């Protein structure tokens, strides 16, 4: 079974790997050589660079995407008795950020094409207690923002976009994060670019950006640089410590400069892989958009038909034997995770469309750490791994 030529390849295909070069290394050393580790010019420079890249009027750096989402609900004053409608098919962080305020995350199922939230399911989940909608661009494929914007406006709700996988995602030429009221990005190592840990909020609302800036730093009224008399400040509002430090920001500045190349490599890899996988019976790739409305090419999710899905772990093992790393986006719909299932009594038969992506999908790598030869190897590996399990079904 493991005797084929492809299995003996010494190729290594990790699902994701941060690409840190000499620019990032030097930028970090420069910070360490200076006196300022937090509250310095790099965080501001990184915000400006990210705002330029996305076309955002305002960008606020934070310590993670989870911090970004929590900070937004926190400054909006959402809490006990309030509800936020959340995509069922997303990272647990999208829902946790709501629950951490004391408010309740109420889930909406996916639509079957892309796995993105179904706007009709969002509307059906709205009650008199709903204060916001948190939508993810699943795998970086744009959600239906025009429908969601209309629903949010009709009900007077804050519309948050979880853009953790959506750097490079555009909707009619507008970058993701700028169609809702705020967009939250992640710079965790396997995302499109990294600062080790880190996040960014983009918004068109200058007042919101100013509020977020203050309240990510204890809610104090003056930053260190703004204090006329050292050590003198007041705290007009509650705040947290969700700042990004200068080491992270220095890495971020160097990474933003490489984003166009990273994205082009992802798209090229995705297209090569899709081409190579057309012949594998019982499988299909979750489709992605290209053009003015475009995916961010985060990964390629192979959906297995009902029969093949029973052997999903064996296929994943077959890929692992060939040194092909895979992942699952996301392992379960959020309401199927223990905290939500126990707290709210959700059952496994709820959110069936989101469930299909969790339980029948295998996420294949297309990151810029790989090239099109690697993609040919992955496509061949998938075909062989599927063939191996077909005999036992
Ligand atoms: C990775 C991810 C997050 C979490 O981002 P952090 O920066 O690690 O907090 C949130 N939402 C989605 C959709 C993600 O994929």
How do you describe this structure in short?
This protein is an alpha/beta fold and 393 residues long.
Distance between the termini: 16 Å
- Taken from the alpha-carbon principal axes, the silhouette is globular
Small ligands present: pyridoxal-5'-phosphate
The total count of strands amounts to 12
Low-confidence stretches: 1-5
- Helix content bin: 25-40%
Order of helices and strands: HHEHEHEHEHEEEEEHHHEEHHHHEH
Strand order of the largest sheet: 1-9-8-5-4-2-3
Please work out how many helical segments DSSP would assign: 14
Mean pLDDT: 96
Radius of gyration: 22 Å
Strand fraction: 5-15%
Class inferred from helices and paired strands: alpha/beta
The largest sheet is: 7 strands, mixed
